Predict the structure.
Amino acid sequence: MSIQTGAAWVDFASSRLARYKLFNGVNWGRFAVISVPTLWLGIFFFVPFLVVFKISLSESAIAIPPYTSLLDWDLEEAYINIKLNLGNYLYLFEDTFYLEAYLSSVKIAVISTFFTLLIGFPIAYLIARSKPSTRTLLLSLVILPFWTSFLLRVYAWMGLLKKNGIVNEFLLNIGIIEQPLTMLQTDFAVYIGIVYTYLPFMILPLYTALEKMDMTLLEAAEDLGARPSISFFLITVPMAVPGIIAGCLLVFIPAVGEFVIPALLGGSDTLMIGRVLWDEFFLNRDWPMASTVAIVMLVVLVLPIMLIRNSQGKEEGV
Amino acid sequence: MQRQSLFLKMTATLGFIFLYAPLIALIVYSFNKSKLVTVWGGWSLKWYGELFRNEQIIDAALLSLKIAFISASLAVVLGTIAGLVLSRFGNFRGKLILSGWITAPLVMPEVITGLSLLLLFVAMEGAFGWPAGRGIGTIIIAHTTFCMAYVAVVVQSRLSQLDDTLEEAAMDLGAKPASLFFLVTLPLIKPALISGWLLSFTLSLDDLVIASFVSGPGNSTLPMLIFSKVRLGVSPEVNALATIMIAVVALGVFAAILQMRRQIRLTVAANQA
Protein backbone atom coordinates (compact mmCIF):
# COMPACT_ATOMS: atom_id res chain seq x y z
CA MET A 1 0.00 0.00 0.00
CA SER A 2 2.72 2.46 0.96
CA ILE A 3 4.66 1.67 -2.20
CA GLN A 4 1.59 2.45 -4.20
CA THR A 5 1.04 5.71 -2.37
CA GLY A 6 4.69 6.59 -2.88
CA ALA A 7 4.40 5.82 -6.56
CA ALA A 8 1.31 7.99 -6.74
CA TRP A 9 3.27 10.89 -5.26
CA VAL A 10 6.15 10.43 -7.71
CA ASP A 11 3.61 10.33 -10.49
CA PHE A 12 1.99 13.46 -9.13
CA ALA A 13 5.23 15.34 -8.86
CA SER A 14 6.45 14.37 -12.31
CA SER A 15 3.31 14.88 -14.31
CA ARG A 16 2.09 18.44 -14.64
CA LEU A 17 -1.33 17.22 -15.63
CA ALA A 18 -1.84 14.92 -12.69
CA ARG A 19 -3.27 17.49 -10.31
CA TYR A 20 -6.65 15.86 -9.91
CA LYS A 21 -4.93 12.57 -9.23
CA LEU A 22 -4.41 13.58 -5.62
CA PHE A 23 -7.52 11.78 -4.58
CA ASN A 24 -6.13 8.60 -6.05
CA GLY A 25 -6.37 7.04 -2.60
CA VAL A 26 -10.15 7.34 -2.58
CA ASN A 27 -10.65 6.58 -6.24
CA TRP A 28 -14.43 6.90 -6.07
CA GLY A 29 -14.80 10.61 -6.69
CA ARG A 30 -12.46 10.49 -9.64
CA PHE A 31 -14.16 7.40 -10.98
CA ALA A 32 -17.59 9.02 -10.73
CA VAL A 33 -16.43 12.18 -12.52
CA ILE A 34 -14.95 10.13 -15.36
CA SER A 35 -18.03 7.93 -15.59
CA VAL A 36 -20.60 10.66 -16.16
CA PRO A 37 -19.54 11.79 -19.67
CA THR A 38 -18.30 8.32 -20.61
CA LEU A 39 -21.59 6.67 -19.73
CA TRP A 40 -23.64 9.35 -21.48
CA LEU A 41 -21.64 9.03 -24.71
CA GLY A 42 -21.55 5.26 -24.39
CA ILE A 43 -25.33 5.05 -24.18
CA PHE A 44 -26.27 7.79 -26.63
CA PHE A 45 -23.39 7.68 -29.08
CA PHE A 46 -21.80 4.23 -29.12
CA VAL A 47 -24.63 1.79 -28.31
CA PRO A 48 -26.85 3.27 -31.07
CA PHE A 49 -24.36 2.00 -33.65
CA LEU A 50 -24.75 -1.53 -32.27
CA VAL A 51 -28.52 -1.15 -32.56
CA VAL A 52 -28.17 0.06 -36.15
CA PHE A 53 -25.98 -2.95 -36.93
CA LYS A 54 -28.50 -5.27 -35.33
CA ILE A 55 -31.41 -3.85 -37.29
CA SER A 56 -29.43 -3.96 -40.54
CA LEU A 57 -29.54 -7.74 -40.06
CA SER A 58 -33.30 -7.91 -39.69
CA GLU A 59 -36.05 -7.90 -42.25
CA SER A 60 -38.43 -5.13 -43.08
CA ALA A 61 -41.95 -5.85 -41.86
CA ILE A 62 -45.30 -4.17 -41.64
CA ALA A 63 -45.37 -3.74 -37.90
CA ILE A 64 -44.49 -1.27 -35.17
CA PRO A 65 -41.49 -0.94 -35.17
CA PRO A 66 -41.23 -1.95 -38.85
CA TYR A 67 -38.65 -4.73 -38.65
CA THR A 68 -38.53 -8.36 -37.56
CA SER A 69 -36.67 -9.38 -34.43
CA LEU A 70 -33.50 -11.44 -34.71
CA LEU A 71 -34.40 -13.73 -31.85
CA ASP A 72 -37.46 -15.72 -31.20
CA TRP A 73 -37.92 -18.44 -28.69
CA ASP A 74 -40.47 -20.86 -27.41
CA LEU A 75 -39.89 -22.22 -23.93
CA GLU A 76 -42.32 -25.11 -24.30
CA GLU A 77 -40.83 -26.34 -27.51
CA ALA A 78 -37.41 -25.44 -26.01
CA TYR A 79 -35.87 -23.64 -28.90
CA ILE A 80 -34.17 -20.34 -29.54
CA ASN A 81 -34.14 -19.20 -33.09
CA ILE A 82 -31.54 -16.68 -34.24
CA LYS A 83 -32.23 -15.34 -37.64
CA LEU A 84 -29.60 -13.11 -39.23
CA ASN A 85 -30.68 -11.67 -42.52
CA LEU A 86 -27.77 -10.78 -44.80
CA GLY A 87 -30.18 -10.00 -47.59
CA ASN A 88 -29.96 -6.23 -47.14
CA TYR A 89 -26.18 -6.30 -47.60
CA LEU A 90 -26.42 -8.57 -50.63
CA TYR A 91 -29.08 -6.37 -52.14
CA LEU A 92 -26.95 -3.28 -51.52
CA PHE A 93 -24.06 -4.78 -53.48
CA GLU A 94 -26.21 -6.27 -56.22
CA ASP A 95 -28.25 -3.19 -56.98
CA THR A 96 -25.96 -0.75 -58.78
CA PHE A 97 -28.11 2.13 -57.53
CA TYR A 98 -26.50 2.04 -54.08
CA LEU A 99 -22.98 1.57 -55.39
CA GLU A 100 -23.46 4.51 -57.72
CA ALA A 101 -24.80 6.60 -54.87
CA TYR A 102 -21.71 5.86 -52.73
CA LEU A 103 -19.32 6.59 -55.59
CA SER A 104 -21.12 9.75 -56.58
CA SER A 105 -21.14 10.99 -52.93
CA VAL A 106 -17.41 10.40 -52.63
CA LYS A 107 -16.83 12.10 -55.98
CA ILE A 108 -18.90 15.14 -55.04
CA ALA A 109 -17.20 15.32 -51.64
CA VAL A 110 -13.69 15.09 -53.15
CA ILE A 111 -14.32 17.78 -55.77
CA SER A 112 -15.95 20.13 -53.26
CA THR A 113 -13.14 19.58 -50.76
CA PHE A 114 -10.60 20.49 -53.43
CA PHE A 115 -12.36 23.75 -54.28
CA THR A 116 -12.83 24.58 -50.60
CA LEU A 117 -9.07 24.24 -50.18
CA LEU A 118 -8.43 26.37 -53.25
CA ILE A 119 -10.63 29.20 -51.97
CA GLY A 120 -9.78 28.76 -48.31
CA PHE A 121 -6.01 28.85 -48.64
CA PRO A 122 -5.56 32.46 -49.83
CA ILE A 123 -8.01 33.68 -47.20
CA ALA A 124 -6.25 31.78 -44.40
CA TYR A 125 -2.87 32.98 -45.70
CA LEU A 126 -3.95 36.60 -45.80
CA ILE A 127 -5.37 36.43 -42.27
CA ALA A 128 -2.25 34.76 -40.90
CA ARG A 129 -0.06 37.51 -42.46
CA SER A 130 -2.10 40.50 -41.30
CA LYS A 131 -1.64 42.65 -38.20
CA PRO A 132 -3.02 41.20 -34.95
CA SER A 133 -5.85 43.74 -34.74
CA THR A 134 -7.04 43.17 -38.33
CA ARG A 135 -6.55 39.46 -37.78
CA THR A 136 -9.27 39.31 -35.11
CA LEU A 137 -11.64 41.21 -37.37
CA LEU A 138 -10.97 39.01 -40.42
CA LEU A 139 -11.22 35.81 -38.39
CA SER A 140 -14.56 36.92 -36.99
CA LEU A 141 -15.73 37.72 -40.52
CA VAL A 142 -14.90 34.14 -41.48
CA ILE A 143 -16.62 32.68 -38.44
CA LEU A 144 -19.73 34.91 -38.51
CA PRO A 145 -21.55 33.04 -41.29
CA PHE A 146 -20.82 29.83 -39.40
CA TRP A 147 -22.91 31.13 -36.50
CA THR A 148 -25.89 31.80 -38.71
CA SER A 149 -28.19 28.98 -39.65
CA PHE A 150 -26.72 26.34 -41.95
CA LEU A 151 -30.15 25.64 -43.42
CA LEU A 152 -30.72 29.31 -44.22
CA ARG A 153 -27.28 29.67 -45.78
CA VAL A 154 -28.09 26.81 -48.14
CA TYR A 155 -31.50 28.34 -48.75
CA ALA A 156 -29.89 31.68 -49.67
CA TRP A 157 -28.34 30.02 -52.71
CA MET A 158 -31.73 28.93 -53.97
CA GLY A 159 -32.67 32.58 -54.53
CA LEU A 160 -29.33 33.28 -56.19
CA LEU A 161 -29.20 30.31 -58.54
CA LYS A 162 -32.85 30.09 -59.64
CA LYS A 163 -33.74 30.42 -63.28
CA ASN A 164 -35.06 33.93 -62.66
CA GLY A 165 -32.68 34.34 -59.74
CA ILE A 166 -30.20 37.08 -58.95
CA VAL A 167 -27.18 35.56 -60.70
CA ASN A 168 -29.07 34.96 -63.93
CA GLU A 169 -30.63 38.44 -63.89
CA PHE A 170 -27.21 39.97 -63.38
CA LEU A 171 -25.55 37.97 -66.18
CA LEU A 172 -28.44 38.74 -68.55
CA ASN A 173 -28.30 42.44 -67.74
CA ILE A 174 -24.59 42.81 -68.43
CA GLY A 175 -25.05 40.77 -71.58
CA ILE A 176 -22.77 37.81 -70.87
CA ILE A 177 -25.56 35.34 -71.54
CA GLU A 178 -28.65 35.49 -73.72
CA GLN A 179 -30.63 32.70 -72.09
CA PRO A 180 -30.88 32.13 -68.34
CA LEU A 181 -28.64 29.28 -67.20
CA THR A 182 -30.01 26.28 -65.37
CA MET A 183 -27.96 26.22 -62.18
CA LEU A 184 -30.37 25.24 -59.43
CA GLN A 185 -31.06 21.50 -59.18
CA THR A 186 -27.76 20.52 -60.74
CA ASP A 187 -24.55 19.04 -59.33
CA PHE A 188 -22.97 22.46 -59.83
CA ALA A 189 -25.32 23.95 -57.23
CA VAL A 190 -24.42 21.13 -54.82
CA TYR A 191 -20.69 21.90 -55.20
CA ILE A 192 -21.36 25.57 -54.50
CA GLY A 193 -23.48 24.70 -51.48
CA ILE A 194 -20.84 22.44 -49.95
CA VAL A 195 -17.93 24.80 -50.62
CA TYR A 196 -19.91 27.71 -49.23
CA THR A 197 -21.15 26.12 -46.01
CA TYR A 198 -17.97 24.23 -45.15
CA LEU A 199 -15.46 27.01 -45.96
CA PRO A 200 -14.93 28.06 -42.30
CA PHE A 201 -14.00 24.45 -41.42
CA MET A 202 -11.20 24.67 -43.98
CA ILE A 203 -9.98 28.18 -43.18
CA LEU A 204 -9.63 27.74 -39.42
CA PRO A 205 -7.18 24.78 -39.37
CA LEU A 206 -5.24 26.28 -42.30
CA TYR A 207 -4.97 29.55 -40.42
CA THR A 208 -3.77 27.75 -37.28
CA ALA A 209 -1.02 26.01 -39.26
CA LEU A 210 0.05 29.12 -41.21
CA GLU A 211 0.05 31.35 -38.17
CA LYS A 212 2.58 29.12 -36.43
CA MET A 213 4.96 29.34 -39.39
CA ASP A 214 8.34 30.95 -38.83
CA MET A 215 8.51 33.96 -41.18
CA THR A 216 12.30 34.14 -41.06
CA LEU A 217 12.37 31.01 -43.23
CA LEU A 218 10.85 33.01 -46.09
CA GLU A 219 13.33 35.83 -45.55
CA ALA A 220 16.18 33.35 -45.62
CA ALA A 221 14.87 31.85 -48.85
CA GLU A 222 14.59 35.31 -50.38
CA ASP A 223 18.14 36.19 -49.33
CA LEU A 224 19.33 33.02 -50.99
CA GLY A 225 17.62 34.07 -54.21
CA ALA A 226 14.38 32.08 -54.21
CA ARG A 227 11.52 33.71 -56.05
CA PRO A 228 8.32 34.16 -54.01
CA SER A 229 6.49 31.49 -56.00
CA ILE A 230 9.31 28.99 -55.35
CA SER A 231 9.43 29.66 -51.63
CA PHE A 232 5.65 29.48 -51.46
CA PHE A 233 5.59 25.96 -52.85
CA LEU A 234 8.78 24.75 -51.15
CA ILE A 235 8.28 26.33 -47.72
CA THR A 236 4.79 27.66 -47.05
CA VAL A 237 2.78 24.77 -48.48
CA PRO A 238 4.77 22.00 -46.75
CA MET A 239 4.51 23.87 -43.44
CA ALA A 240 0.75 24.05 -43.87
CA VAL A 241 0.32 20.31 -44.48
CA PRO A 242 -1.14 19.49 -41.03
CA GLY A 243 -3.72 22.24 -41.52
CA ILE A 244 -4.46 21.06 -45.05
CA ILE A 245 -5.06 17.50 -43.88
CA ALA A 246 -7.25 18.54 -40.95
CA GLY A 247 -9.24 20.99 -43.06
CA CYS A 248 -9.80 18.52 -45.89
CA LEU A 249 -11.01 15.82 -43.49
CA LEU A 250 -13.32 18.24 -41.68
CA VAL A 251 -14.93 19.07 -45.02
CA PHE A 252 -14.80 15.66 -46.70
CA ILE A 253 -16.35 13.48 -43.96
CA PRO A 254 -19.59 15.40 -43.36
CA ALA A 255 -19.86 16.23 -47.08
CA VAL A 256 -20.07 12.52 -47.99
CA GLY A 257 -23.17 12.08 -45.85
CA GLU A 258 -24.68 15.49 -46.60
CA PHE A 259 -28.47 15.58 -46.90
CA VAL A 260 -29.73 19.17 -46.78
CA ILE A 261 -27.54 20.51 -49.61
CA PRO A 262 -28.44 17.88 -52.25
CA ALA A 263 -32.08 17.99 -51.12
CA LEU A 264 -32.41 21.75 -51.61
CA LEU A 265 -29.88 22.53 -54.34
CA GLY A 266 -29.41 19.23 -56.16
CA GLY A 267 -31.50 17.81 -58.98
CA SER A 268 -33.49 14.62 -58.80
CA ASP A 269 -30.54 12.92 -60.52
CA THR A 270 -28.01 14.14 -57.93
CA LEU A 271 -27.27 10.88 -56.19
CA MET A 272 -25.92 11.24 -52.67
CA ILE A 273 -25.93 8.54 -50.06
CA GLY A 274 -27.27 10.76 -47.26
CA ARG A 275 -30.32 11.42 -49.38
CA VAL A 276 -30.70 7.72 -50.21
CA LEU A 277 -30.67 6.90 -46.49
CA TRP A 278 -33.23 9.62 -45.79
CA ASP A 279 -35.56 8.35 -48.52
CA GLU A 280 -35.21 4.71 -47.40
CA PHE A 281 -36.23 5.78 -43.94
CA PHE A 282 -38.86 8.45 -44.49
CA LEU A 283 -40.36 7.49 -47.85
CA ASN A 284 -39.95 3.71 -48.08
CA ARG A 285 -40.18 3.18 -44.30
CA ASP A 286 -37.56 0.46 -44.76
CA TRP A 287 -35.65 0.78 -41.48
CA PRO A 288 -33.43 -2.28 -42.03
CA MET A 289 -32.29 -1.02 -45.44
CA ALA A 290 -31.64 2.48 -44.05
CA SER A 291 -29.53 0.84 -41.31
CA THR A 292 -27.58 -1.16 -43.88
CA VAL A 293 -26.85 1.99 -45.87
CA ALA A 294 -25.68 3.67 -42.64
CA ILE A 295 -23.39 0.79 -41.67
CA VAL A 296 -21.72 0.68 -45.08
CA MET A 297 -21.31 4.47 -45.01
CA LEU A 298 -19.63 4.14 -41.60
CA VAL A 299 -17.25 1.53 -43.00
CA VAL A 300 -16.35 3.89 -45.85
CA LEU A 301 -15.77 6.77 -43.40
CA VAL A 302 -14.07 4.92 -40.56
CA LEU A 303 -10.56 5.49 -41.90
CA PRO A 304 -10.91 9.24 -42.43
CA ILE A 305 -12.54 9.52 -38.99
CA MET A 306 -9.60 7.73 -37.36
CA LEU A 307 -7.24 10.05 -39.23
CA ILE A 308 -9.00 13.14 -37.98
CA ARG A 309 -8.77 11.86 -34.42
CA ASN A 310 -5.02 11.54 -34.76
CA SER A 311 -4.45 14.80 -36.59
CA GLN A 312 -6.85 16.72 -34.41
CA GLY A 313 -4.20 17.76 -31.88
CA LYS A 314 -5.78 20.26 -29.55
CA GLU A 315 -6.18 23.51 -31.38
CA GLU A 316 -7.74 22.49 -34.66
CA GLY A 317 -11.26 22.17 -33.33
CA VAL A 318 -13.62 24.97 -34.22
CA MET B 1 6.60 40.20 -53.47
CA GLN B 2 4.34 43.16 -54.23
CA ARG B 3 2.57 41.39 -57.08
CA GLN B 4 2.02 38.28 -55.07
CA SER B 5 0.39 40.19 -52.25
CA LEU B 6 -1.88 42.05 -54.67
CA PHE B 7 -2.97 38.74 -56.17
CA LEU B 8 -3.49 37.38 -52.67
CA LYS B 9 -5.59 40.35 -51.63
CA MET B 10 -7.76 40.04 -54.70
CA THR B 11 -8.44 36.33 -54.24
CA ALA B 12 -9.14 36.81 -50.55
CA THR B 13 -11.49 39.71 -51.31
CA LEU B 14 -13.33 37.54 -53.80
CA GLY B 15 -13.49 34.86 -51.11
CA PHE B 16 -15.10 37.26 -48.65
CA ILE B 17 -17.55 38.43 -51.32
CA PHE B 18 -18.44 34.78 -51.90
CA LEU B 19 -19.03 34.36 -48.14
CA TYR B 20 -21.24 37.43 -47.75
CA ALA B 21 -23.07 37.97 -51.05
CA PRO B 22 -25.74 35.29 -50.40
CA LEU B 23 -26.47 36.65 -46.92
CA ILE B 24 -26.71 40.22 -48.21
CA ALA B 25 -29.03 39.15 -51.03
CA LEU B 26 -31.22 37.36 -48.49
CA ILE B 27 -31.42 40.47 -46.30
CA VAL B 28 -32.18 42.85 -49.18
CA TYR B 29 -34.91 40.65 -50.60
CA SER B 30 -36.59 40.27 -47.21
CA PHE B 31 -37.59 43.94 -47.61
CA ASN B 32 -39.01 43.33 -51.07
CA LYS B 33 -42.64 44.30 -51.55
CA SER B 34 -43.25 41.87 -54.41
CA LYS B 35 -44.43 38.36 -53.72
CA LEU B 36 -42.21 37.06 -56.52
CA VAL B 37 -39.10 36.76 -54.46
CA THR B 38 -36.62 37.84 -57.11
CA VAL B 39 -38.57 40.64 -58.76
CA TRP B 40 -37.94 43.94 -57.02
CA GLY B 41 -41.17 45.70 -56.10
CA GLY B 42 -39.90 48.40 -53.78
CA TRP B 43 -39.06 48.45 -50.07
CA SER B 44 -41.55 47.08 -47.61
CA LEU B 45 -41.79 45.54 -44.15
CA LYS B 46 -44.79 43.49 -45.21
CA TRP B 47 -43.15 40.07 -44.83
CA TYR B 48 -42.06 40.83 -41.28
CA GLY B 49 -45.69 41.50 -40.46
CA GLU B 50 -46.74 38.24 -42.10
CA LEU B 51 -44.00 36.44 -40.21
CA PHE B 52 -45.17 37.64 -36.80
CA ARG B 53 -48.78 36.82 -37.61
CA ASN B 54 -47.88 33.26 -38.63
CA GLU B 55 -48.63 31.27 -35.51
CA GLN B 56 -47.16 28.08 -36.89
CA ILE B 57 -43.76 29.74 -37.28
CA ILE B 58 -43.94 31.44 -33.89
CA ASP B 59 -44.83 28.16 -32.16
CA ALA B 60 -42.03 26.30 -33.91
CA ALA B 61 -39.57 29.07 -33.02
CA LEU B 62 -40.56 28.96 -29.36
CA LEU B 63 -40.23 25.18 -29.31
CA SER B 64 -36.79 25.38 -30.91
CA LEU B 65 -35.61 28.08 -28.48
CA LYS B 66 -36.77 25.98 -25.53
CA ILE B 67 -35.00 22.86 -26.83
CA ALA B 68 -31.85 24.84 -27.62
CA PHE B 69 -31.77 26.42 -24.16
CA ILE B 70 -32.11 23.14 -22.29
CA SER B 71 -29.76 21.19 -24.59
CA ALA B 72 -27.06 23.86 -24.48
CA SER B 73 -27.18 24.00 -20.69
CA LEU B 74 -26.96 20.22 -20.31
CA ALA B 75 -24.23 20.06 -22.96
CA VAL B 76 -22.14 22.64 -21.08
CA VAL B 77 -22.29 20.60 -17.86
CA LEU B 78 -21.46 17.26 -19.52
CA GLY B 79 -18.98 18.72 -22.01
CA THR B 80 -17.07 20.60 -19.31
CA ILE B 81 -16.71 17.43 -17.27
CA ALA B 82 -15.51 15.56 -20.37
CA GLY B 83 -13.02 18.30 -21.30
CA LEU B 84 -11.71 18.48 -17.73
CA VAL B 85 -11.36 14.71 -17.48
CA LEU B 86 -9.48 14.52 -20.78
CA SER B 87 -7.03 17.31 -20.10
CA ARG B 88 -6.52 17.29 -16.31
CA PHE B 89 -6.99 13.73 -15.11
CA GLY B 90 -3.71 12.28 -16.38
CA ASN B 91 -4.02 8.78 -17.73
CA PHE B 92 -6.90 6.49 -16.92
CA ARG B 93 -8.33 3.37 -18.40
CA GLY B 94 -10.69 4.20 -21.23
CA LYS B 95 -9.20 7.61 -21.96
CA LEU B 96 -8.61 6.73 -25.61
CA ILE B 97 -12.18 5.55 -25.95
CA LEU B 98 -13.60 8.68 -24.35
CA SER B 99 -11.49 10.97 -26.56
CA GLY B 100 -12.64 9.00 -29.61
CA TRP B 101 -16.28 9.35 -28.58
CA ILE B 102 -15.72 13.10 -28.15
CA THR B 103 -14.19 13.65 -31.61
CA ALA B 104 -16.39 11.35 -33.67
CA PRO B 105 -19.72 13.19 -33.21
CA LEU B 106 -18.08 16.36 -34.58
CA VAL B 107 -17.64 14.89 -38.05
CA MET B 108 -20.23 12.10 -38.10
CA PRO B 109 -22.74 12.61 -40.93
CA GLU B 110 -25.98 13.77 -39.35
CA VAL B 111 -28.12 11.17 -41.10
CA ILE B 112 -26.16 8.43 -39.31
CA THR B 113 -26.37 10.11 -35.89
CA GLY B 114 -30.08 10.77 -36.35
CA LEU B 115 -30.97 7.28 -37.54
CA SER B 116 -28.90 5.54 -34.88
CA LEU B 117 -30.38 7.59 -32.03
CA LEU B 118 -33.91 6.99 -33.27
CA LEU B 119 -33.32 3.24 -33.45
CA LEU B 120 -31.86 3.34 -29.94
CA PHE B 121 -34.91 5.16 -28.59
CA VAL B 122 -37.25 2.69 -30.27
CA ALA B 123 -35.28 -0.29 -28.95
CA MET B 124 -35.16 1.20 -25.44
CA GLU B 125 -38.87 1.86 -25.48
CA GLY B 126 -39.42 -1.76 -26.49
CA ALA B 127 -37.16 -3.06 -23.74
CA PHE B 128 -37.84 -0.77 -20.72
CA GLY B 129 -40.77 1.35 -21.80
CA TRP B 130 -38.62 4.49 -21.72
CA PRO B 131 -38.63 6.94 -23.46
CA ALA B 132 -42.37 6.56 -23.96
CA GLY B 133 -42.90 7.96 -27.43
CA ARG B 134 -40.73 10.59 -29.01
CA GLY B 135 -40.84 14.34 -28.82
CA ILE B 136 -39.12 17.20 -27.03
CA GLY B 137 -37.33 14.89 -24.60
CA THR B 138 -35.70 12.75 -27.25
CA ILE B 139 -34.67 15.82 -29.28
CA ILE B 140 -33.04 17.28 -26.17
CA ILE B 141 -31.09 14.07 -25.50
CA ALA B 142 -29.91 13.95 -29.12
CA HIS B 143 -28.86 17.61 -29.18
CA THR B 144 -27.13 17.38 -25.81
CA THR B 145 -25.09 14.45 -27.10
CA PHE B 146 -23.61 16.12 -30.14
CA CYS B 147 -23.33 19.57 -28.53
CA MET B 148 -21.39 18.23 -25.52
CA ALA B 149 -18.69 17.09 -27.93
CA TYR B 150 -18.26 20.66 -29.17
CA VAL B 151 -18.19 22.01 -25.61
CA ALA B 152 -15.60 19.40 -24.60
CA VAL B 153 -13.31 20.44 -27.46
CA VAL B 154 -13.64 24.14 -26.61
CA VAL B 155 -13.01 23.51 -22.89
CA GLN B 156 -10.10 21.19 -23.63
CA SER B 157 -8.37 23.74 -25.84
CA ARG B 158 -8.92 26.48 -23.24
CA LEU B 159 -7.46 24.26 -20.51
CA SER B 160 -4.43 23.41 -22.62
CA GLN B 161 -3.68 27.11 -23.17
CA LEU B 162 -4.13 27.85 -19.52
CA ASP B 163 -1.18 28.37 -17.26
CA ASP B 164 -1.75 25.88 -14.47
CA THR B 165 0.29 27.65 -11.79
CA LEU B 166 -2.88 28.96 -10.17
CA GLU B 167 -4.34 25.50 -9.86
CA GLU B 168 -1.01 24.26 -8.56
CA ALA B 169 -0.86 27.00 -5.95
CA ALA B 170 -4.38 26.19 -4.78
CA MET B 171 -3.37 22.54 -4.44
CA ASP B 172 -0.28 23.46 -2.46
CA LEU B 173 -2.44 25.50 -0.14
CA GLY B 174 -4.55 22.42 0.48
CA ALA B 175 -7.63 22.96 -1.69
CA LYS B 176 -9.78 19.86 -2.03
CA PRO B 177 -10.52 18.73 -5.61
CA ALA B 178 -14.08 20.04 -5.48
CA SER B 179 -13.15 23.48 -4.20
CA LEU B 180 -10.15 23.55 -6.55
CA PHE B 181 -12.55 23.06 -9.44
CA PHE B 182 -15.28 25.47 -8.36
CA LEU B 183 -13.05 28.22 -6.98
CA VAL B 184 -10.08 28.14 -9.35
CA THR B 185 -10.54 26.14 -12.57
CA LEU B 186 -14.14 27.12 -13.26
CA PRO B 187 -13.59 30.91 -13.14
CA LEU B 188 -10.52 30.46 -15.36
CA ILE B 189 -12.41 28.59 -18.08
CA LYS B 190 -15.54 30.76 -17.92
CA PRO B 191 -15.00 32.27 -21.41
CA ALA B 192 -14.83 28.76 -22.88
CA LEU B 193 -18.06 27.82 -21.11
CA ILE B 194 -19.81 30.89 -22.50
CA SER B 195 -18.66 30.27 -26.08
CA GLY B 196 -19.42 26.54 -25.68
CA TRP B 197 -22.95 27.36 -24.53
CA LEU B 198 -23.53 29.81 -27.40
CA LEU B 199 -22.14 27.35 -29.92
CA SER B 200 -24.39 24.58 -28.59
CA PHE B 201 -27.38 26.89 -28.58
CA THR B 202 -26.88 27.81 -32.25
CA LEU B 203 -26.18 24.22 -33.30
CA SER B 204 -29.31 22.99 -31.58
CA LEU B 205 -31.42 25.84 -32.97
CA ASP B 206 -30.19 25.01 -36.46
CA ASP B 207 -30.42 21.23 -36.53
CA LEU B 208 -32.79 19.78 -39.10
CA VAL B 209 -31.63 16.24 -39.81
CA ILE B 210 -31.23 14.79 -36.33
CA ALA B 211 -34.42 16.42 -35.05
CA SER B 212 -36.39 15.05 -38.02
CA PHE B 213 -35.35 11.53 -37.08
CA VAL B 214 -35.91 11.67 -33.33
CA SER B 215 -38.92 13.96 -33.04
CA GLY B 216 -42.40 12.60 -32.69
CA PRO B 217 -45.55 13.60 -34.56
CA GLY B 218 -46.69 17.15 -33.92
CA ASN B 219 -43.32 18.36 -32.69
CA SER B 220 -42.03 20.44 -35.59
CA THR B 221 -38.97 22.46 -34.72
CA LEU B 222 -38.23 25.68 -36.59
CA PRO B 223 -35.71 24.14 -39.03
CA MET B 224 -38.18 21.33 -39.81
CA LEU B 225 -40.86 23.89 -40.61
CA ILE B 226 -38.48 26.03 -42.70
CA PHE B 227 -37.32 22.97 -44.62
CA SER B 228 -40.84 21.91 -45.49
CA LYS B 229 -41.60 25.48 -46.63
CA VAL B 230 -38.49 26.08 -48.76
CA ARG B 231 -38.48 22.64 -50.31
CA LEU B 232 -41.28 23.92 -52.50
CA GLY B 233 -39.39 27.08 -53.42
CA VAL B 234 -38.19 30.42 -52.10
CA SER B 235 -40.47 32.02 -49.52
CA PRO B 236 -40.43 35.73 -48.57
CA GLU B 237 -41.42 34.99 -44.98
CA VAL B 238 -38.39 32.77 -44.58
CA ASN B 239 -36.23 35.62 -45.92
CA ALA B 240 -37.58 37.87 -43.18
CA LEU B 241 -36.94 35.21 -40.55
CA ALA B 242 -33.39 34.68 -41.86
CA THR B 243 -32.69 38.41 -41.69
CA ILE B 244 -33.73 38.54 -38.05
CA MET B 245 -31.52 35.57 -37.21
CA ILE B 246 -28.54 37.03 -39.08
CA ALA B 247 -28.99 40.38 -37.34
CA VAL B 248 -28.99 38.78 -33.89
CA VAL B 249 -25.85 36.78 -34.64
CA ALA B 250 -24.05 39.75 -36.21
CA LEU B 251 -24.77 41.92 -33.18
CA GLY B 252 -23.46 39.23 -30.86
CA VAL B 253 -20.28 38.66 -32.85
CA PHE B 254 -19.53 42.37 -33.15
CA ALA B 255 -19.98 42.83 -29.43
CA ALA B 256 -17.49 40.00 -28.94
CA ILE B 257 -15.00 41.59 -31.37
CA LEU B 258 -15.20 44.97 -29.63
CA GLN B 259 -14.59 43.26 -26.31
CA MET B 260 -11.64 41.32 -27.73
CA ARG B 261 -10.11 44.38 -29.40
CA ARG B 262 -10.26 46.28 -26.15
CA GLN B 263 -8.54 43.41 -24.44
CA ILE B 264 -5.80 43.27 -27.09
CA ARG B 265 -5.21 47.01 -26.80
CA LEU B 266 -4.97 46.71 -23.05
CA THR B 267 -2.45 43.88 -23.35
CA VAL B 268 -0.38 45.85 -25.87
CA ALA B 269 -0.47 48.89 -23.59
CA ALA B 270 0.51 46.77 -20.61
CA ASN B 271 3.43 45.27 -22.50
CA GLN B 272 4.65 48.71 -23.47
CA ALA B 273 4.61 50.03 -19.93
Remarks:
- The CA atoms of residues 22 and 193 of chain A lie 51 Å apart.
